[in-house]
Amino acid sequence: MHAELLAKKPQVEPLFAEAERKNKLLRQTAGGGIEQMNELLTEWDRFEVLMESHRLMIKERVEVMKADAESRINAFNQQLEKFAARWHQLKPQDVSLEGDHEVCINAMASLTERRAEFDEILASMEKLKSDCRHFGVDVPEFSIAEELQKDITKFEKMWSLYDQFHTGLLEMTKEDWISFRGHTYQLDDFLASWMDRLRDGLNGEHTTVTVRLQKEVDKYQQLLPMMKYVKGEVLSADHWHELFRMLSMPRGTTLERLTFGDILGAADEILSNVDGLKELYSRAQGEVSIREALRELELWGAGAVFSLTPYSDSKSVDINIIKDWKDLVNQVGDNQSLLQSLKDSPYYQGFVDKASLWETKLADLDEYLYHLNQIQRKWVYLEPIFGRGALPREHSRFKRVDDEFRSIMSDVNHDNRVLSLGNRTGLRQCLTTLLDQLGRCQKALNEFLEEKRAIFPRFYFIGDDDLLEILGQATNPVVIQTHLKKLFAGIHSVQFDQDCSHIMAMKSLEGEVVLLKEPITISTDVEVWLGHLAEQMKWTLQELLVQCLNDGRKEGGNGINPNNYPSQILCLAEQILFTERCEQAIKSCILSEFLIELDSQLEAYTNAERYSAASNAEDTDSHVLELKLKSLILDTIHFIDVVHTLIDATVTVSSVGEWLWQKQLRFYMRDGKCILKMVDAEFNYTYEYQGNAAKLVHTPLTDKCYLTLTQGMHMGLGGNPYGPAGTGKTESVKALGGLFGRQVLVFNCDEGIDVKSMGRIFIGLVKCGAWGCFDEFNRLEEAVLSAVSMQIQTIQASIKNQAATTELLDKQIDLDPNAGIFITMNPAGKGYGGRQKLPDNLKQLFRPVAMSRPDNEQIAEVILFSEGFKKAKDLGKKFVALFSLSMELLSPQQHYDWGLRALKTVLKGCGSLLQAERANSDNQKVSPETEMKIAVQALRLNTHSKLTFSDSKRFDALIHDVFPDVAFQDVEHPDLEQALRDACKEANLLVIESQISKALELMEQLRQRMGVVIVGPSGSGKSTLWKILRSALTKLGQCVKQYVMNPKAMPRTQLLGHIDIDTREWTDGVLTYSARQVVKEPTSVQSWIICDGDIDPEWIESLNSVLDDNRLLTMPSGERIQFGPNVNFIFESHDLSCASPATISRMGMIFLSDEETDIKALINSWLKSVSQTTSGSSSEHLEAWMEDYFYKALDWVISTDDFVVETTLVGVALNGLSHLVHITNKSQFACALIKGLGGNLGEQSRLNFAKAVFQWTHETPPDQRRLLDTYYNQNTGRLSSYQLEVPDNIGVDRLSSGSLPVVLTTDVQRSLDMFTPWLHPSNKHPFVLVGPEGCGKELLLRYGFDQLRSTQVAVVHCSAQTNSTHLLQKLSQTCIVLSTNTGRVYRPKDCERLVLYLKDLNLPKPDKWGTSQIIAFLQQVLTYNGFYDANLEWVGLEGVQIVASMNPGSMLGRHSLSTRFTSVVRICSIGYSDR
User: Fold this and answer.
1) Beta-bridge mates of residue 848
2) What's the CA gap between 76 and 71, in Å, rounded?
3) Where are the alpha helices (DSSP H) in 607-740?
4) Quick one: which of 1298, 1277, 1270, 1302 has its CA closest to 1289?
5) CA 4, 10, 13, 19: dihedral to nearest 10 degrees?
6) How many CB atoms lie within 10 A of CB 640?
7) Is the per-residue pLDDT at 1176 higher than 60?
8) In whole angstroms, what is the distance from residue 727 CA to residue 854 CA?
9) Distance (Å, rounded) from C-alpha 89 to C-alpha 110?
10) Other CB atoms within 10 A of residue 1062 CB
11) How far apart are CA 427 and CA 407, in angstroms?
């Protein structure tokens, strides 16, 4: 303060002087100044004195203090030296290296204390320094303090690292081990961060602490991989105790209280006990899988139940029986395998008690289920039979079985758990007994059926089920009617008396009624009264023959009244009378007069009033009369030919012993019985009723055939007519059998028939005295052929030696000497697939007769004559000439047949047209011009449908040449035509005239032939054709039922059925099952069995006897199904290259070609459907763009023909259309066109195509060098180019997660845009993604699938052996089966949509006919949305999309796909992406 006063005094004194001056002036002017001034001055002086005295006092004190400060500095220096000495001695130097964690913690605590102490010293040092400055003393330098500061800070820094490390570790060590063991990666991250810190953060300086820390980090890093052995997820309580002991943990440690700190604390023990821990871990691991397996078994045992289904027994009592056996048995089998696999574990011993208990349980269960399944199957089969009271002597045995079975089922019903089955006492013994007893019942039943067959041998030719039905309902007239036609060739039904207890008459299919001489009483012994019926049939015909002959002789040769006798007897009587009269004429040498007599007889027959009621379809009698007259005309023409032959001989025949007469088939009556002679062979007529079977025209070839066969039989051999298809081999054998009055049974042989089947058929034949005609005999397998030859040899020897019995299948069989065995066949090779050459030992048992060139001209003439044509001779010649010219001049197509079958169809067509003409003209005489017109009409009607586009023009030209001046006129069906048009409109189809005419052709072919093939490329409208015809017929009131199948989508046995080798039990196939359904329908219902799939000899030739005039399906079981005229088989195929002439000649053909496919109509139909979903203006634009650019683009693509996958015209068009939905402007249209039509083109062609499209549409792509990368940007409304898009979430974790991220390169975006529209719910299409190996097909598809909502993907990896069964397994795993009102349906499990993804679709190996079963199956699924399951039931498929990928080309092991398949799927081809 004193200093301040001294400083301010010079400023204050002038102020006083100035104030005094102003005061003086104030006194002078105002007379009085300010009095206080004097006081102030006095005060100021006093203050100065005071301050001076204070200064002197302070000065004294300061001197004292200066002396004091120096002594403080000395004291402080001493204190500092002391602290420094202690610091240097005690600072924590080597602790960090040697000491444990406890020592380090103490060191850090002491470091903190030293720092606090030093901070105090520093504070007093600062105070000392400020005092020195204050008293003006020199400020001393404390160098020791600075050194200490540096040293302590350095140590602090060092130890703070240790502190941070341990604080971080401490956080983790507090966590309990159970929750932390799943997050050990936290420790990993912590150590990794410290590794980096220690490596990078210390600028290369290493201190004892960093070394210490490095050691700790290294130790823990070593520990990390060992952690998994102490995680202990798999450890049981015992294992934990062992672990604690190993890690020397304190007593009382428990898993609940165990922390991560405890584990880290035991790090050294863990590292030193690695091997022990590993052993403990693997032991626990092994034991846990065993424990899991056993737990799984326990769960299964608790939850497995039988699924039951109600079954109504023979007395209509409901009982629940078990279904889904297969799943159950599989589950038990899987569990047994599981237990078996546990035994391989080295740790199994600990669980042996529990496991063996389960093993016993499952083994028992397996046995019980196996037995119970067999018992149930047999019970279901036998119960209806025994329940109806069949086999009374076995009834008590079955009753016991029945009671026991019902009791077991009742137990199962009360407790349906599978394991409860084993709790029933004495079950094993009970099941074994049941099975044995049921076996005995079955055996008794089989013996019973065999007994019945022995009594009435015709039962050999019907199945067990049919036989049981007949036996069980012996007096039910409805059942009798359905089965009679299977037992008698000519009897279609019978007439009963009022109370249905007697059969009064038999009736043929055509309606001919033959009254029996004595009524047959119907009794429960069905075999007995059926036997009586057979005898009565023969007896009646025999009596009628005698009467008829008497009438014939009585009326002086003017013929017999045809209305009074059945057709068969009329013809037979005529034959006998002809033989008598001809022999008289030969002896009397009046053959010429006899000829005139025959001519007048023929004239009488042809002019008979047979068409009087043709217009009235109800009048069956007139129809029967017409058939009788046709037969009589055919016979009379033959008689005239015979007489001509006798007259025209170089030496006129004058004795009945001459060859020309001896070689004729002659009929005589001897002792009231008819016998036949041919040369020196003589046979009895057997009076089997033949109905109104159509007759064969007698030609030199049939005479030669008959002569060979009769001579063969005379020598005790069989006959073997062989030759190409359609030459009348089987028909000749049947016709000869008909002339002999035999029952002729045709059997269609195929590889499904084995030796036992043949043996049973032979037994039936020799007992019945029937003829067996084995058609396509050389389609049997070679081994079967050899064995069969032994059986035939035995039969022939017995017949020749006139033995009463013969031995077959180790049994003595009664032998009827009238039996005969004939075989007919096409030559092996030469376009006839699947046939063998006959072994020599078999050849010599049959007299061969070559039938290669039928006398077509004569046949045509005679048939036309019998149909009522007067100009028959001319017309016949013209027809044959036209067919020969067609064969030579038209293109040689695989599906053309100009043989006898085709000719016969035309001739039959002529007959029906002539009848219609006569009916329309009120039975007026038909002029020769009209006959010609009808002939041309029939020719064009039956031939045009099979001709190619160009051939149909040539054929019309040929007709003009052969029939000049005949105008063409089509057959008109105005009602059907209108109905077809309506059907098209209803189905939202455009009416195309060519399609309407094809549908009419199909209708005609179905009328004429049993089987019709619709052949043409995919998309040519094959299915549409029969579908619109069916709905048109339905509109006209005709009920048409359809049964659709793809024969190649399933194994042959599933299609055609098979015999179980062990039990000889027959199991139906899809086709045979459909056939049974069809036969049950009344004749008013039309049934179509539609086989939509590739045709090959393996399966279609098994239908040969169905498709020819026999209309008969024969099965390896010996069973036969005879179809009526209300059944047709329709075959759909794109290719007949594998079909043999045997198949082609039997079929009606409807040929559709690409040339006739109207693409415009297809597109207009598509536009029509699109316009219903889009607004008016955009659909108009779309129409205009389609017109301007689509057809041009389609033509460009088709003409370039650079397809990656071969497909059809319609396939290409549909690919194009699939991208054109929701198009709003032209730029978008151009891009969609390139994607759609260009999707299946090679890379270069696609580029050229894009150029062309942009040129046509005048659209300018943004980047001319990358045309294919152009797309339509919805947001900007203009064309853009794809740009690379990298997803944000790519990181290391994403790469290690297993699924690779998709980087949207321009190529990837382009590829995705090509197929993702087909995955869109509103535009779903099945498609195939094609691209080279490794181009990312699966990656792209997966990416596409991931974008879909509620969708599951089921992957099938195809290999050469993949077939439809694998797909069915996959579908059954991923779908659930629901029963709907339309049948059963597969729908995806747990999601709305299932994508069935097939990898490498072109790997499955096709069969030898080039069809891949899996492709056929997929085609069926795509076309008909379903398939047949193992129970032959049609199962629909909903919510499933088929997607496939494959490598292009047909490199080794890859096969090209059928074009029928590639045209129903969309195709997208991609290449390698730019890297």
Assistant:
1) 720
2) 9
3) 620-648, 659-662, 700-714, 729-739
4) 1302
5) -100
6) 16
7) no
8) 6
9) 13
10) 6
11) 12
Please give the DSSP secondary-structure letter assigned to residue 500: S
Ranges 420-429, 526-535, 618-627, 1056-1065: which has the least confidence = 1056-1065
Tokens representing residue 682 in the block: 């003589």
- What is the rounded distance in angstroms from the CA atom of residue 1110 to the CA atom of residue 1122? 8
What secondary structure does DSSP assign to 274-322, as a single string? Answer: HHHHHHHHHHHHHHHHHHHHHHHHHHHHHH-B-EEEEEE-TTS-EEEEE
Query: Do 1200 and 1250 meet the contact criterion of CB atoms below 8 Å apart?
Result: no
**Within its chain, how far is the Cα of 220 from the centroid?**
58
Distance from the first to the final alpha carbon of the chain = 89
3-state DSSP call for residue 682?
strand
Instruction: Please write the tens of the pLDDT for every residue from 639-676.
Output: 988 888 888 876 666 777 888 888 889 999 988 889 99
Query: Which residues make Cβ contacts (< 8 Å) with residue 333, sequence separation at least 6?
Result: 366
Across the beta sheet with 771-775, the strand order is 744-748, 771-775, 820-824, 718-722, 846-850
Decide: 545 and 538 in contact? Cβ < 8 Å. no
Residue 586: phi, psi to the nearest 5?
-65, -45
pLDDT of residue 142: 67
Q: Which amino acid is at 313?
A: D
Determine how many CB atoms are found less than 10 A away from the CB of residue 330: 11
User: Burial of 32 by CB count in 10 Å (0-12 exposed, 13-18 middle, 19+ buried)?
Assistant: exposed
Q: How far, in Å, CA of 72 to CA of 79, rounded?
A: 10
Q: How far is CA 1062 from the centre of its chain?
A: 30
Q: Which value, in Å, is the radius of gyration of the alpha carbons in the chain?
A: 53
pLDDT digits (tens, 9 = 90+) for 857-892: 888 888 888 887 888 888 888 888 888 888 888 888
Q: Which residue(s) pair with 682 in the sheet?
A: 677
- Among 362, 372, 383, residue whose Cα is nearest residue 323: 372
pLDDT of residue 613: 39
Cβ 948 vs Cβ 895: under 8 Å: no
Residues listed for the chain: 1475
Mapping DSSP to helix (H, G, I), strand (E, B) and coil, where does residue 1291 land? coil
- How far apart are the C-alpha atoms of 825 and 834, rounded to whole Å? 12
* Average pLDDT, rounded, for the chain: 79
Buried b (16+ CB within 10 A) or exposed e, 1155-1179: ebbbbebbbebbbeebeeebeeeeb
Predicted TM-score (pTM) of this structure = 0.66
Are the beta carbons of 840 and 833 closer than 8 angstroms?
A: no
Contact (CB, 8 A) for 1197 and 1457: no
* pLDDT for 1475: 52
Give dist(CA 1328, CA 1398) in Å, integer. Answer: 9
**Alpha carbon of residue 1036 to chain centroid:** 36
Q: Tell me the three state secondary structure of residue 924.
A: coil
Range with lowest mean pLDDT among 739-753, 1265-1279, 1326-1340: 1265-1279
Q: Which residue has the tokens 């105002």?
A: 30
Which residues face 503 on adjacent strands? 496, 520
- DSSP alpha helices (H): ranges in 649-744? 659-662, 700-714, 729-739
Decide which of 386 and 505 is more confident.
505
C-beta neighbour count of 1117 within 10 angstroms = 24
Check pLDDT > 60 for residue 1350: yes
Phi, psi of 1124 (to 5 degrees): -90, 180
The conformation of residue 825, written as its DSSP 8-state character, comes to B
Q: Is the dihedral of CA 1140, 1145, 1149, 1154 positive or negative?
A: positive
Which H or E run includes 968?
Answer: none
Geometric angle at alpha carbon 981, from 977 and 983, rounded to 5°: 110
Residue 189 C-beta-side C-alpha neighbours within 13 Å: 6
pLDDT tens-digit map of 246-285? 666 766 666 556 666 666 656 666 666 667 666 666 766 6
